[in-house]
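Quick one:
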Amino acid sequence: MSREQHIARTFVELADTLVEDFDVIDFLQQMTVRCQELLDVTSAAVFLAHPGPHLHSPAPCDPTPPLQRALEAACEEGPAVDAHHTAQLVTAHDAADAATRWPQFTPLLQQAGYTLATALPMRLRQDVIGSLLLLHTGERLNADDLALAQALADAATIGLIQARTIRQQHTVNEQLHTALQSRIVIEQAKGLLAARSNITLNQAFEALRRHARQHQILLSTVAHDVIDSGLTPAVAPARAQGNSADPE
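Output:
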């Protein structure tokens, strides 16, 4: 699959929220995966302003403890917060600039092994629902990649707002709140499955996600089954480098 085809397919995925039992967790996780595949970034995280005024990161990820601390700090200070508040792209010129602007967040980011962080608002006109945080170990993104990143964030925002509009606002708001609670259960299930099958956390999450899609059930339901009923989803064979998109 060419990069252009991959980009086109990603925008279709981000628009596909008009489905029964729309799964916010899976949607946001897929968003971060596609950012890593399409952009020159090492990690990505989505932050949403729900519930209340503070940012939260509901999509599960596989951070090391230092990165986990950096992401927790990013909810209170840093480019993700600034991008949400200003509805603009936020990045630092260099490490010294970042340390001055975000004295709590920047040291934790560096301890996690990252050199730069860039954040873009998740927005639709005047409605800003959160931000997309991109973490680098190398140079900053070029103008073309920044434009693509903002387009991905905008498309995801449209998808979420579209789902909220169609299903009534309280339905998706409730799902977002449930996503925050379900993340703990999913992380526990990943750890159990990884230990049980002697696989990595990434492989464990992929197995959970594939099982959920194949059986058309929520990720949180699969996670509960892994914890409570001993379910052990099958692990897919390793895929070739460069074919990271899901099969049709």
